[in-house]
Write a structure and sequence with these properties.
The chain is α/β, with parallel strands linked by helices. The protein is built from 13 helices and 7 strands. The termini are far apart.
Length: 294
Amino acid sequence: MQKRILIVGAGEIGSALFAVLKKNKNNHISIWDIDPKRCFPKDSLEKMASDTDFLFFCIPSHAIDTCIYKVKKHPGGKTIVISLTKGIERKRGFLTSELLIKSFGKERIALLAGPMLAEELKMGLKTKACLAASSSVFNKISSLFTNTFLSLERLDDIHGASACGVLKNIYSLGLGIAEGLKMGSNTRGILLLQATREMRALMPQFKGNPTTVLTLAGLGDLEATSSSEFSKNHATGSMIAKGKKITHFSEGHLSLPLVVKRIGKKRLPPFMKAIYQVAKEKKDPRKIFNALIQ
């Protein structure tokens, strides 16, 4: 029996998810995008959402609340909503997981997180990710990935997975700054450990479990995002360090002030404080980062 799937967002990750899911012949996939030329079939989001079994959000964090608002009254009662969005809502600073639970309830949602660089997925390189969901929802979603090159493991901490997606982007930005300063692999190792420690310490403030940081959704994704040539967060950090003009900011850069506001500027851990000072307060990156590893 074919499963009806709607991918909301035809950007990099949406296109990559399509490349993965089409490997399963039982999947019938539709795509909606703000650009009508990238939609098939060409119809409204509301109409397409009302006629699907699984709905995947593959959109930038600044669009998540608008898209949720448009579809939350339209999916049927059995539609399962899965988010790949790794950012924080702009207006109120909510995690994607908080918005999903508020709009659809706990028993119809999931969050897919882990080392899933879009470029590598499009190349068909095998990977693995966490699906934060109840066991029944996990079983339904995991069947969509049968015979694909993306395998899943279940995670019971949807807020933690969501928070890891936000925080790893910010720390990848910081590791990109260090890379741009040519601080070397030793410093990268120091900062990667510091990022992991700080993410664990911050988890309770996002209703997450510190152990989630040590999963594919946390450390696995952080390592991939902070080291890949394809990572926009890493590239943005490197450009900041070199004093280059940035025209398209990454999710980490955009999420940083919202996370700082949620945590409290006076309560920032050292590495995140250094990233904020360099990326937002325009302080000398070499001076700040040299002080960080003393």
